[in-house]
Amino acid sequence: MSQNPQRGFNPNAPTFVPNANAVPFVPGQRYAAPPPHHQQQQQGPPQYYQQQQQPYPGYPPQMFMGQGGAWDDGAEDPVPEKKEEIKKETLQKEQESVTKEPAAPKSQPKEEKPKEAKPPKEDTPIEEHVVKPSKFPPVNVEEMERTHKEHLNIVFIGHVDAGKSTIGGQLMYLTGMVDKRTLEKYEREAKEKGRESWYLSWALDTNEEEREKGKTVEVGRAYFETEKKHFTILDAPGHKSFVPNMITGATQADLAVLVISARRGEFETGFDRGGQTREHAMLVKTAGVKHLIILVNKMDDPTVKYDEARYIEIQEKLTPFLRKCGFNPKTDLTYIPCSGLTGAFIKDRPEGDALWYTEILVDLFA
């Protein structure tokens, strides 16, 4: 097998000299050899630098191949002939489809009916507004004002076991808010539990815990009415552990009733020995109550027996303190002896007892 001779390095080759007058390369144009150097000097600038005439100025000549481009030497463009053949074929197909399918009939324009002339509007009479009768009876404002009753909140305050709940229950019974049958039921239940004297307080102390211990825990609420006013009873607890609940009732009150026990030793316990009588009087004044009724309760007790001296003794000890709290003894304070268990001086004045006193509690509420 013969091997091709290897080409070697030619040390005698001429040095490469770049041609500065070479024609610039344009894609799509045929390469032509530049003219000799002596012809360029005689004839001026080469022909390749002269601007050729373009069919569409502003576009490069390579976009118009077949119309004087450089690479096809003026060859004819076959594309227009193919386009003409395609047009002829499409025209023949359209003619054949027209001959096969009949033309759809053109829709005839609708005939417009003449508009009927509307008769002129006649002036219709305006109907009068008829007021329908109401389902509800008419409101008599004068009667409402006559029957309307002023509403007041009364809070009962005082030391524990002074008789606040008992007086509240007796007041509800005497004004007809609690019937006799309900009180008889409470009395039977109280006898069974050995708390016979507590049955009146059960009208306000509805909680089982309060009935078992005989102490009001929460503020009891009830109401009663007179001829002109509607009253809500707020029965505040008297124990020192429930002072926050007492304050809640005092802030809602328009009038306060301070209940004092006239029994020997109980008044001194509630007033002199750090009881709740002093604290409740100060708190109710701080809450904004202006008028205070002092009920000296348990005047029917065997240790008292409606003794006027005992009544005056309590009044003389209590009035200076209430004056310091901010109450005016002449205009803001009212003292009434009473018995919550029997109802004496609450609605009716008892016969033969305490002839030295004439006022009753309900008359102050009228």
UniProtKB/TrEMBL annotation:
Alphabetical UniProt keywords: GTP-binding, Nucleotide-binding, Phosphoprotein
Entry's Gene Ontology molecular function annotations: GTP binding; GTPase activity
Phosphoprotein keyword on record: yes
Spans annotated as Disordered: 1-129
Species the sequence originates in: Panagrolaimus davidi
Domain Tr-type G: 149-366
Protein name in UniProt: Tr-type G domain-containing protein
KW Phosphoprotein (keyword) present: yes
Organism placement in taxonomy: Eukaryota, Metazoa, Ecdysozoa, Nematoda, Chromadorea
PROSITE patterns: G_TR_1, G_TR_2
